[in-house]
Amino acid sequence: MRRLFWVGVGVAVTVVVYRRGRKVVQQYLPASVAERAGQAAQDAGERASGFVADFRETFGEARARREAELTAALLAEGQPDPETTRAQRAAGGHRATGARRAFPAGGPAAGVDDIDDDEAELGYSF
């Protein structure tokens, strides 16, 4: 309990010193120095904003390049580009969901002809 009391006293003293210090600085500081400090802070903000915009642009380009590299590295030989496959599915060339249908009444063997078109090309299915 004593520690909490002294922490509270320390916080209160810090706030009082900070506020009084700001008043003293404003009282004795020439207006031109304050204007220069304000302008310097504004310039720093503009530079930071420009840096962030440049960083986002550079990061986006690097991310797109790396994504293309990883996609190329992960595709099997002869496997079509995923964007091409998505475009074909959207155009109606394949089923849009890609999900398998439930087994027909005769069981799994009766649905042998119910295989996705691209399974023969891919060599695997889920």
Folded structure, characterized:
This protein is mainly α and 126 residues long. It has a domain at 38-72. Helix content is 67%, strand content 0%. It is built from four helices and no strands. The chain has helices at residues 2-28, 31-74, 82-91, 119-122. The protein is elongated and about 80 Å long. The two termini are 63 Å apart. The relative contact order is 0.05.
Q: Care to give the gist of this entry?
A:
This protein is an all-alpha fold and 126 residues long. The protein is built from 4 helices and no strands.
Rg (C-alpha, Å) = 33 Å
Report the span from N to C terminus: 63 Å
Strand content: under 5%
Give the uncertain stretches in residue-range form: none
3D shape: elongated
The biggest beta sheet, please? none
Arithmetic mean of pLDDT: 81
Task: Please work out how many helical segments DSSP would assign.
Answer: 4
Oligomer: single chain
Judged by helices, strands and strand pairing, the structural class is: mainly alpha
Question: What is the β-strand count?
Answer: 0
Helix-strand pattern, N to C?
HHHH
In helices, the fraction of residues equals: 55-70%
Task: Spell out the key features of this protein.
126 residues, mainly alpha, elongated
